[in-house]
Amino acid sequence: MDTYNRLPVSFERGQGSWVWDIQGRPYLDALSGIAVCGLGHAHPAVASAVCEQARTLVHTSNLYGVPAQEALGERLCKLAEMDRAFFCNSGAEANEAAIKLARLHGHRQGIPEPVILVMEGAFHGRTLATLSATANPGAQTGFGPLVPGFVRVPYDDVDAVAAAASEHPGIVAVLVEPIQGEGGIRVPSSGYLSALRAVCDRHGWLLMLDEVQTGVGRTGRWFAHQHETVCPDVVTLAKGLANGVPIGACLARGAAASTLTPGSHGSTFGGNPLACAAASAVLETIAGDGLLERANHMGRQMIQGLRGALGDIPAVREIRGQGLMIGVELDRPCADLIGQCLDRGVLVNVTAERVVRLLPPLVVSEAEAERIVASVSEAIRTFLG
Fold first, then answer.
1. 313 and 284, same structural domain?
2. What is the pLDDT of residue 342?
3. Is 150 an annotated catalytic residue?
């Protein structure tokens, strides 16, 4: 179906930070399949894990024990300081699970119409519930009536969250991205998540963090909330978890971890042996190869390089990010930059109309990072005239 405005290029193979189109032309991937291929393309550890598992057992369903799923769940929960994991196939499904969990949690507290607090600029998915939690009128148009039970406040505004408590007595949870990705690589003020944690504790709400784009090393920590050492009640993951093999996860602790019970939720494909083998290989590689530290180092290098190359241009409003999640905000819509960077052999994205989004693989080399900075800076200067 005609659901994508595709660029005039098709790729047939990849290696590390590079992909090659069907004519054999190479491109430096500064988008990683939208924060998915954190280990780059055709990583040998992931390829070996997938091949070995495919030769053994791909799928049995969750009617039976899945040892690979149990091992992955234990590892993720240890990394995130959570108690239990539910596996699915995407970020939208992970957030859908979190929404259902929060509502069920509220009903069990005697709240007949539970409300979840969400943020302006948020993006949580395209299912009807996650679309309703999302703040993108363009994505919502034509799909009404949307799902009720969400109240929206400004992002990075703790006072607005606190004020909502008296205006909406049915609030049971706050769902928020530690850094807004689709919303324009918006990095909140220092202490924002800690302040949200305090508000949630004061009112007995669940703090649910959408780490679909920020998680699994993207920002230089396993999870972006660990930059503040905040412990949420629920964390959702997907994208970079299995380097391109579809998987999602909803992690929870405390009361939230025991809310869902047999029959209350499920997934046919979620957490099957193939996806879990790929995800385990990703976690092992990130830990073994020191890629968290690398993401921090390379992110700082790229932001400094972009600021050095573009900092004197008034039309460049801000260059911001954390780890290898970087945004260059202009003072005008700049979707044309996608094609202009493509012509220069670099894959980028524009989000929130005015923000060039860079999400290179965690394995990007210094030379590759410098090339991304030079090519993107040149394209922006040319675009701005």
1. no
2. 98
3. no
Q: Which residues contact 244 (CB under 8 A, 6 or more apart)?
A: 33, 36, 37, 46, 278
Residue 210 catalytic? yes
Choose the catalytic residue: 29, 210, 223, 233.
210
Residue 38 resides in a domain: no
Residue-wise pLDDT tens digits, 8-26: 999 999 999 999 999 999 9
Question: Among residues 150, 223, 233, 239, which one is catalytic?
Answer: 239
β-pair partners for 208:
175, 234
Tell me, yes or no, if 239 is annotated catalytic.
yes
The catalytic residue among 29, 86, 87, 123 is 123
**Owning domain of residue 151:** 46-288
Of the three residues 288, 322, 337, the one that is the final residue of a domain is: 288
pLDDT of residue 138: 87
Q: What residue ranges of the chain have pLDDT lower than 70?
A: none
What CATH code is carried by the domain that includes residue 319?
3.90.1150.10
